């Protein structure tokens, strides 16, 4: 992971660090790693237009008006945050990176919120965001000669999503009296 962390030179003094709100340094590092997967032109376009929040290690947080007025806000669910010490090759970390790239793809493409469009248009936007996130992920891996890393596929993403749906269902399932 340290090799990827060293590639975060483009983040230094960008001001973006103030728009990543994560209450765990390890998780914040993973978010920075995910940002490394963005092509430079995409990163430059988006770095002042998004803020990323994770609620892991906190009961809640407030997004200040100053931040939310001019930026897309990406909220990361605490159940997708990998355990400390996870490596970038593990499915949980790969999925987190994908989720961040997927949400940035929505912002980059100026997609409309799902509650403002018909289901067909929403599905098209989801497919476009998935494809862009996969492309950014796999291009980064290939460009950085990560030969041991397998390409990220929608099959792997679907498995992670199914796992997370089960976690959410169990977490919020009402217990019988």
How does this structure look, described?
This protein has helices at residues 2-6, 25-36, 40-46, 65-68, 91-108, 119-143, 154-172, and strands at 20-21, 50-54, 72-76. By secondary structure, the protein is mostly helical. The chain has 7 helices and 3 strands. It is globular, with a radius of gyration of 16 Å. Helix 2 crosses helix 5 (91-108) and helix 5 crosses helix 6. The chain has a 3-stranded parallel sheet with strand order 1-2-3, with helices on one face. The chain has one domain.
Using brief descriptors, characterize the structure shown.
mainly alpha
The biggest sheet amounts to: 3 strands, parallel
Helix content: 40-55%
- What is the SS-derived class? mainly alpha
Shape: globular
Strand order of the largest sheet: 1-2-3
Task: Please indicate the count of domains.
Answer: 1
SS summary, helix count: 7
Low-confidence runs: 1-10
Tell me the β content.
5-15%
How far apart lie the N and C ends?
46 Å
Mean pLDDT: 86
Radius of gyration based on Cα positions = 16 Å
